Structure to design on (253 residues):
């Protein structure tokens, strides 16, 4: 792998960074720092319009985004060009569970799969494909929808039947018209990645507090909100009732 001196890094978890993604960036920042000044091969599966891909490319890394949506990829390409990193961002239309034909096995240092496993037909082959793409020792950043937060949100919004369904359904689904195919508890998400050959090192809650705050509070002292969000992210029970669960895992050597 070539060595370069990346430009100043992507958003760290610092005041001024959006509280909704601060926890994820804090975990990623640590992994990027751990790799020193190496330009990493990053794969973002279901990376959409590049909310993570473009900042990572701006930090000097080479990012391939595989996404099923041509519209999302077109927006990604525009965004990368506007940021001046088009040469470090590759947009590939394709399915997450068919990565084998799109990405060389064991070629990736860091794989992202954010807000995807809850919408695909079958998460197991996608998780397996993430592991296959990673080099031994490579890291995975996986973000999934949390079940407990959805139960609480439906119940406090008066949708008691939907809350009960999400609680009791094996997939954590409110019903056939639910926009998500499944939701996760920390143990279930960890087991999914483990079955794929990924060792989960950390689990954090994302948006544990931000989605619960009245907007006057969320828009008020943003520094305080961000610091509180970071403080609770790793701590059960706050972690477990977060809107999303972030798992940081590594392919076993
Ligand atoms: C909720 S968006 C998340 C986008 C981005 N990862 C983020 O966190 O902002 C889900 C993305 O996954 C993509 N997607 C859904 N199913 C997919 C599949 N089977 N293979 C690849 N991409 C998929 C969608 O096109 C969409 O861009």
């Amino acid at each position: 792998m070539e060595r370069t001196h990346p430009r100043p890094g992507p958003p760290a978890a610092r005041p001024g960074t959006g509280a909704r993604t601060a926890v994820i960036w804090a975990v990623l920042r640590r992994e990027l720092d751990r790799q020193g000044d190496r330009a990493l091969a990053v794969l973002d599966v279901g990376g959409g319009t590049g909310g993570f891909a473009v900042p990572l490319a701006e930090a000097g890394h080479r990012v391939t985004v595989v996404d099923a949506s041509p519209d999302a990829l077109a927006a990604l390409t525009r965004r990368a060009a506007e940021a001046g990193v088009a040469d470090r961002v590759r947009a590939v239309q394709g399915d997450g569970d068919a990565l084998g034909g799109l990405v060389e096995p064991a070629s990736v240092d860091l794989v992202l799969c954010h807000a995807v496993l809850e919408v695909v037909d079958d998460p197991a082959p996608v998780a397996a494909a993430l592991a296959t793409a990673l080099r031994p020792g490579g890291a995975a950043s996986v973000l999934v929808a949390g079940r407990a937060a959805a139960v609480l949100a439906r119940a406090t919004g008066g949708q008691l039947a939907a809350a009960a369904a999400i609680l009791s359904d094996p997939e954590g689904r409110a019903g056939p018209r639910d926009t998500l195919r499944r939701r996760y508890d920390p143990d279930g998400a960890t087991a999914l990645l483990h079955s794929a050959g990924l060792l989960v090192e950390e689990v954090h809650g994302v948006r544990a507090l931000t989605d619960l705050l009245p907007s006057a509070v969320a828009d008020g002292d943003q520094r305080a909100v961000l610091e509180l969000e970071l403080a609770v992210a790793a701590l059960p029970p706050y972690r477990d009732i977060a809107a999303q669960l972030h798992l940081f895992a590594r392919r076993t050597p």
